[in-house]
Design a protein that fits this description.
The complex is a heterodimer of chains A (160) and B (289).
Chain A (H helix, E strand, L loop, with lengths): L5 H17 L13 H12 L6 H15 L5 H22 L2 H26 L10 H26 L1
Helix pairs in contact in A: 1-2, 2-4, 2-6, 3-4, 4-5, 5-6
Chain B lengths: L1 H6 L6 H32 L2 H38 L9 E8 L9 E4 L12 E3 L4 E8 L4 E5 L6 E6 L5 E6 L6 E2 L14 E4 L11 E9 L8 E6 L8 E6 L9 H9 L6 H16 L1
Antiparallel strand pairs in B: 1-2, 1-12, 2-5, 3-4, 3-12, 4-5, 6-7, 6-9, 7-8, 8-11, 9-10, 10-11
The chains are: A mainly alpha (160), B alpha+beta (289).
């Protein structure tokens, strides 16, 4: 794997993911908007673990905190935890077929949502709607598309 | 990492947040761009005659408003004089800044919106935000190029209000729905009925008094419970407006009775009610502080 200029593509995809994250989706879609930034991060960790690490996850998490107006460190913490797990398992994850990967993603997203729920509850007693958990499912459903799309982005770089 | 969360409480990380926001704010503006472009396009292709009728309409409106304002000056003076009689202090006028909404969605389940004016324009947290119809919310977090505004309908937001008809004081809490506020702290025999206008009471110091907040639309006494269930509809068009007003109001009331004191010094023989009451009024404000 050639190790030059790949970072630009990673940053561009992360920025696009951030845009999707805060885009004003119409109506019901707002409630099921998955965590694009995390999905992109997970992809890059599995694909190029020597480029994207826990520190990057932490930085991007911090930026996401500012972007979405959360308590500083909330996403930084959760993203680094998930990326740590992905780094540990990346060799195995690459071998998984897509459905099995999606299952792994499902548990990642569920874990992160539980963590966020817990962190929210520490700050203030929050009454959350049942649709709080919907992004977990939509994120899982989106994973195959994100995987193929980002794979194309990565391989088009390699072809150059 | 967990340290960050605990350190948040001391507001020591605000500067870090504003530095990071300089990096991140372009994304917000980028997302906002399409809606701005659409608006611009719609404006530039609107026909000459439509603009002409709109212009005429606006001119009429301005004419009517101006005529209404003619009496406002004298009423304000009268109000100040009456307040001086009551040995009360009067709040000076407010300063306004127009901010435009960024059409982005920060987090679902929270009624927090972003606007395009930040600390660069002197915006600071806890400033009240209005629109043409009523109170919208308050500035929740001010960043250099944008700021976050919590709407009055956010479940974590409460605003001290007063019934315009009889001055009954209570608190309106956000319900999490864009068209509803709850008034959970009124007893069953409270004098309130559907159609009552709720205005800001000025208690709490964040919101200046006298701005319309909501209209009571439902009142259902529950005999088995000590408090009654009241819901109200916000006057402000929370989901339709793009332009908001950020307000600077003097947090400490300014006594306007100082002007008459100068007159008394000049001609001590004058014995209007005003001048006689001035020392008492001054003493009143001093003891307040």
């Amino acid at each position: 794997m050639n190790n030059y200029s790949g970072f630009g593509r990673i940053i561009v995809t992360i920025v696009v993911a951030m845009c999707l994250r805060i885009a004003p989706w119409p109506g019901f879609l707002i409630n099921i908007n998955p965590d694009w930034v995390l999905l992109a991060l997970i992809y890059w960790t599995i694909a190029v673990p020597e480029r994207v690490g826990i520190f990057h996850a932490w930085t991007i998490g911090l930026l996401t905190d500012v972007l979405t107006g959360r308590v500083l460190g909330q996403y930084a913490l959760t993203y680094s935890l998930i990326i740590y797990i992905c780094l540990l398992l990346h060799k195995r994850l690459r071998q998984f077929p897509l459905p099995q990967q999606s299952l792994f993603i499902f548990f990642c997203l569920l874990f992160i949502q539980i963590l966020l729920f817990w962190l929210n509850n520490i700050q203030h007693q929050s009454q959350l709607h049942a649709s709080f958990w919907l992004p977990v499912f939509t994120g899982t459903l989106c994973w195959p598309f994100i995987y193929t799309a980002l794979r194309r982005v990565r391989l088009s770089r390699r072809a150059k | 990492m967990a340290l960050l969360i605990t350190e948040y409480r001391s507001h020591r990380l605000d500067s870090l947040r504003s530095t990071l926001s300089v990096v991140i704010d372009p994304i917000k503006y980028l997302i906002d761009l399409p809606s701005v472009l659409i608006e611009e396009a719609a404006y530039s292709i609107s026909s000459y005659s439509a603009l002409k009728t709109e212009n005429a309409h606006l001119r009429d409106e301005q004419f009517i408003d101006k005529t209404r304002l003619l009496k406002f000056d004298s009423l304000e003076k009268e109000n100040i004089r009456l307040r001086a009689l009551l040995e009360n202090s009067f709040k000076l006028g407010e300063q306004l800044l127009i901010a435009e909404l960024l059409s982005i969605n920060m987090a679902p389940y929270e009624h927090v919106v972003a606007v395009n004016k930040g600390t660069r324009f002197g915006v600071h947290p806890q400033q009240p935000v209005l629109d043409a119809n009523g109170v919208v919310g308050q500035v929740f977090r001010a960043l250099p190029f944008s700021s976050e505004i919590m709407l009055i309908t956010d479940p974590n937001h409460a605003i001290p209000v007063q019934v315009n008809r009889n001055g009954l004081l209570t608190i309106a809490v956000g319900s999490g729905q864009l068209n509803r506020l709850n008034l959970p702290f009124l007893p069953n025999n409270a004098d309130i009925r559907p159609g009552d206008l709720l205005i800001t009471s000025g208690l709490g110091g964040t919101f200046p008094s006298g701005y319309p907040v909501a209209v009571v639309d439902d009142f259902t006494p529950i005999t088995s419970k000590p408090f009654v269930n009241i819901t109200a509809t916000p006057k402000a068009m929370l989901d339709r407006n793009r332009e908001l007003l950020i307000v600077w109001s003097d947090s400490s009331p300014v006594s306007l009775t100082t002007k008459p004191t100068a007159e008394t010094v000049n001609n001590p023989s004058a014995d209007s009610v005003l001048t006689r009451k001035v020392p008492a009024a001054k003493a009143g404000t001093a003891s307040d502080e």
